[in-house]
Amino acid sequence: GRLAIDYQPSPDALLYASLSRGVKSGAFNTAALVDISEANSIGPETVLAYETGVKLTLADRRLQTNLAAFYYDVDNYHQKVVDQFAREFLSSADKVEFYGFEFEATARPIDVLTAKLGAGWQKGKYKRFIEPTGSGPVDRSGNTVPGTGNWTVNGLVRLDLPVANDAALISPQVDFSFVQGSYYSTGNDVK
């Protein structure tokens, strides 16, 4: 289910907030199709998601900006774990939280020029996770979820040049992206 509130104080501004609950069905380990010793399954994952943000259109609609912040509270998070024999299994992290923000802006100062910039930061943290390992259970509570805890930045500049009496466009573009390194394993020992 989802509950959302939108407020538009002017035609060029939108404020919003939402609360939603989602369920991801249980799963079985597809790696077991290669190695039957990796066969296992886990129950469903549930999430309670909070999000808030603002969308603004400025400068006679030539600049659009969006800013959003989020917090996810996840029960029974589906986590891949690897044992000492390099076999992959699915495990359930009892409690996990994710939080972060995103910003994006699009500018069209003149009709043929578009510039975009986006940035975001997110982190996931195990609130309660006892990981089964080949040497026994290990408490990963407080560790960062692999693939989170990093910055992303991207952007582009594009020209849309009409040719042949507006029958076609030539659109040269320059873009970039940056993704900061993050942990690879639940033990937070490899970045």
Q: Would you write up a description of this structure?
A:
It is built from no helices and 14 strands. It is elongated and about 70 Å long. A hairpin with a 4-residue loop joins strand 12 and strand 13 (168-170). It has an 8-stranded antiparallel sheet with strand order 1-2-5-6-7-8-11-14, with no helix packed on it. The chain has 191 residues and is mainly beta.
Distance between the termini: 36 Å
Strand content: over 45%
Taking pLDDT < 50 over at least 5 consecutive residues as the criterion, the unreliable ranges are none
Number of helices: 0
Overall shape: elongated
**Mean pLDDT, rounded to whole units?**
92
Encode the helix/strand succession as letters: EEEEEEEEEEEEEE
Helical coverage, percent range: under 10%
How would you write the strand order of the largest sheet?
Answer: 1-2-5-6-7-8-11-14
In total, the number of strands is 14
- Give the structural class: mainly beta
Q: Rounded to an integer, what's the Rg over CA atoms?
A: 22 Å
Question: What about the largest sheet?
Answer: 8 strands, antiparallel
Short account of what is shown:
This protein is an all-beta fold and 191 residues long. It is built from no helices and 14 strands. Helices cover 0% and strands 64% of the residues.
